[in-house]
Structure formats: structure tokens, C-alpha cells
Amino acid sequence: MYKIRPLNKVKRQIVVPADKSISHRAAIISSISKGKTHIKPYLVSEDTQATLDCLKICGVRVNLNKEGLLTVEGVGLYLSRKKRVTLSAGESGTTLRILSGLLCAQKFSTRFNSANSLEKRPMGRITVPLKLMGADIKGKCVKSEEYPPLKINPAKLKGIRYRLPIPSAQVKSALLLASLYAKGETQIIEPAASRDHTERMLSLFKAKLKRQGKSIISSRVKMLISPNELFIPSDFSSASFFIVLGLILKNSEILIKNVNINPTRCGLLRVLIRMGAKIEIINKKDYYEPYTDILVKSSSLRATEVEKKEIPSMIDEIPILAVAASFAKGKTRLKGVGELKVKETDRINSLRYNLTKVGVEICAYKYKKQGREDWALEIKGNPCFYKKGRVEFRSFSDHRTAMSLIILAAAGERESKIDEIQCINKSFPEFIPLIESL
Ligand code: S3P
Question: Does the predicted TM-score (pTM) go above 0.90?
């Protein structure tokens, strides 16, 4: 049990750790490039460590020092000379799904294991299109879905034209990595823009990639060239907890430095501004990824409507948006949130369970559009709802649920508790020391 005491009048400047999605991609793409890459800062967390451990087993020399500098000695497009390797992605879906695209084109066989929540997450979304590219990949079949572990054998790949059934950056990235080895062009069509970190990173490493409207077209390469030095901005998803904290606390002001502000990632900012949030973007810089300082001030929030097409740009921020919506005047409605059911936990369920405990009216319902089933969430907010305190929350061992509830509890008036917070180490081990320092 972890106890959370209320906060108020927070006036601080903070820095949150490096972006998780970019860290995974930087390590993976540096490994298959020519030259040494010095990456700073690399996110130190369970998920990003899982990626490094897999790369090491595949014969890549990686060294992460105490200052957060990661050095990767690229080995070129083909990794290990071993015949077979056994890898574990732990609980990192990004490690498993993205690396699989690369492993399908290697000259060795892989057994790709996972742990806990990841064992129950669907893999058909990557195995189906990778098989269309000629890959020899299969997961454990249960009913009509595939799950980890994945078994991958060497195969010759060919380019395909593929329309993603759901907007997923992990699926898109797996296919883009496979396309580097595939004969002919690979065209990926996105129903809505998901995070484009892989495209940006591959372009930085001189891959042949172009965007045409909703499509990304990629071709085989002879080699990728390392830029040698790479700076990773702070993670917008980690910053989002402190953005919302600054808005819902009274008399507060938080400045968060060097946050990645890639438009495909920061949909939450657009929604919060619509809700009346006082947010300033200061000192924006352009690099392969844009980044900026974000200043947030206590605000009176009002409800909003969030459309399905906005969800991919804020897919990991729905739990913290639900917290903001609980403090807003009126009913906030979010459409197209079905993907939340297949994250580390069913986040629709975890939100319903916890928000109901503090007296927020939350309703989740299924609906059908163009023959496809999806989910919507409605949250009836009330700026004064959270007076009673002494609540016991449940994280369901999900890092983003846990951090969102700690923010909610910090804006309460009495001490609350949460059952399990170890899960936070998955993405943001510095979260607890940082919030305690406030
Ligand atoms: C990620 C993509 C998203 C996101 C996940 C990280 C990535 O998953 O939820 O936390 O780094 O590509 P989906 O691709 O399943 O939407």
C-alpha cells in the first residue's frame, strides 16, 4: 500500500525522463546502422531495458552508463551469427511488436517470450501483415487470436500494400523495419495518424521513406547511417501527469522542460486547451523531433467531446485525461477508445472501478460504426467532487493507471492509498521521487 498526501500551491520547474517510444527506436535503429551512436539521455526503465537486453543477445554491443548515456555499436542490417536466439520482452509490448518486424528478416531463428500482462496481449495485428510480407512468424493460437511467445524463422520478405485495420504505431513500426529488408516497395496506409517516431528516426538514419497523404512508402536499403550523436527529448506521456497536476491543483504553476511535442503524440494538449487549460508553449525547438518547455497554471476546466480520430495522438493519456475530466464542469465524452481494453490492463475497467470509488459518474458503452465495434467513455465532472479522501485505489498493475490515480489523489483533500505501484518502473521509475519532492 502506498499513501498519497494532498498537495497544494506547487510552484516548480521539473524535468521528466527521456521519451520511451523514441528510446526503443533509437536503440533498435542504431543497432542495425553503420557506426557508433551516442544516445543521451536514454530512458532508464524496465521496458527500455528489455529492448537493450534483447539487442545484446542478438550480438549488439550496448553500454548504458550512470549518466544515462547509451552507446550502441551498430552491426549493420544483419545482427547475430548464431543459429537461434531466445529473447524476452518482459512486459514491453513495444519491444515485442517492433523488434519482431526486424527479426523476421534475420538469418537466425527466434523464440520471443514475454511476461505477465504481455502474455495476454494480441499479436495477430503484427503476425498477419508480416506473414503477408513472406515472414515465417507465429504465436500461440487461442480461438482466432495469436499471443506470445512468438516463433520466428528466417524468410525472404517482399513489399506489400497494407491498410492498417487499427491505427497502431507498433504495428506500423514492425512493418517499416521489415520493409528495410523487403524486395520492392512497402506501402502502409493509416486510418488515422499514429505516432511517427519510427519514420522520423529512420529518415535521420538515411532510410528511403516518404509520406503521401495517409500512406508511408518505404523501400529496401543497403545500409543505415548513424548520425553518431542523438538527443532524446523528455517523454510527453510522462509530462502529461504533471501537466494535469498543475491544472487541477489550486494556486499552482509547473514548468516542464524540453518535452517532446510531436503533433502525433500531444493530442492531450489540444484537448486540454479546449477545456480551458492555461498552458503556454515556450522556447520550441526543431530537431528530428520537436521539443519545448510547457508551462501550466491552475485552471477551471470545462467538459469537451473527443472524437475517435483524435484518440491515436493521445492513446496513452486517456487515464490522465479522465482525471482532468473528473475535475471539469460538465460531461466529457470520448469516442473510439476500444484499444484501451488491450493495454497493460483493461483501462476502461480500471478507470470505471477507481473513479466510481471517489464518486465520479463514469459510464462506458459499446457502439458499432461501419460494422466495427468500439467503445465510448463518458465522465461527469465536478470541480469540487473530491472532498472525502481516504480512498483505496487499485492500479491493476498498470503503470499509467497508477500514476493517474496518484495525481487524482494528490489533488484531493485527505490522504488516500493505492495498492501497488511497482508497475510504475515500467516507464517512469523517477515518478515517485519526483512527486514526493513536490
Ligand atoms: C507505442 C504505441 C502505442 C502506445 C504504446 C507505445 C509505440 O501502442 O500505446 O504505449 O511506442 O509505438 P499501439 O501501437 O498499440 O497503439
Answer: yes
